[in-house]
Amino acid sequence: xxxxxxxxxxxxxxxxxxxxxxxxxxxxxxxxxxxxxxxxxxxxxxxxxxxxxxxxxxxxxxxxxxxxxxxxxxxxxxxxxxxxxxxxxxxxxxxxxxxxxxxxxxxxxxxxxxxxxxxxxxxxxxxxxxxxxxxxxxxxxxxxxxxxxxxxxxxxxxxxxxxxxxxxxxxxxxxxxxxxxxxxxxxxxxxxxxxxxxxxxxxxxxxxxxxxxxxxxxxxxxxxxxxxxxxxxxxxxxxxxxxxxxxxxxxxxxxxxxxxxxxxxxxxxxxxxxxxxxxxxxxxxxxxxxxxxxxxxxxxxxxxxxxxxxxxxxxxxxxxxxxxxxxxxxxxxxxxxxxxxx
Length: 342
Hints:
Largest sheet: 7 strands, mixed
Organism: Thalassolituus maritimus
Pfam families: Metallophos
Protein name: Calcineurin-like phosphoesterase
CATH superfamily: Metallo-dependent phosphatases
InterPro entries: Calcineurin-like_PHP, Metallo-depent_PP-like, Metallophosphoesterase_PAP
Strand order of the largest sheet: 6-5-4-3-14-15-16
Domain Calcineurin-like phosphoesterase: 39-262
């Protein structure tokens, strides 16, 4: 058995001084079997407002009950246009403070609002570099933020010599938005560089499970819709559609994304063999679903806050969908889904 809240990538527990105040009773440590992986998927979080705090409290309550090794942060980490430096106070107001009571690491990916000139245009990808830099900052409030590069991989269980899952954090924004004026992020060039990386990472990965996470979804019944037809615009996001089709479909078990502010579990579609899509973008904002018949759905719910808890043991994955009342903060188990690898 192992204790949860293991840290990776040089994450350290804070040290507390002595106090004459009575000590609060320690919370029971929830344990999961060796070789199991338990984590949260949550996106579109970085408002610093009451709804983010309510979802964070609900997430902590679920993790106290079920156990969590880490969370996947699915982009739009800092609304509305990202940060302007590694010392930007928004890191504290929109990440550190809302998740101060959550005691495990977050593995982050970049969204369009993290790379924005104006709101969610996604046209200033240089801004995303500050969020990578924050991973390496020595004076940050905690060591929870993990984003060692714009795209990267890690394995779980954390620190295991025989991991069960390889996670691949994708940088979807340069491929899903209108092409960035900075030549470094031009779609064709960035596509090739990221493709070379993922091909090498797939070749070296030895785990049974392979899970990708990104901000932009491949398919979605929410307002933004499917890649290649985002926001009802023909060919919008086609580079990302092509990237997923060429590099993930047929090789990955699961893709987890945000961007649409709703909760969806979508089974594999014919053009993407074997890969289930999860959308969990209701971490601080909610929005109604757009077209519930656009893609077949195992579960879908819009206009509600929430997140998902995922548990993998052996060849079985269990997804629990939690909704959160925006007024009371009460969380409810809305759906449970199981997926078994062949």
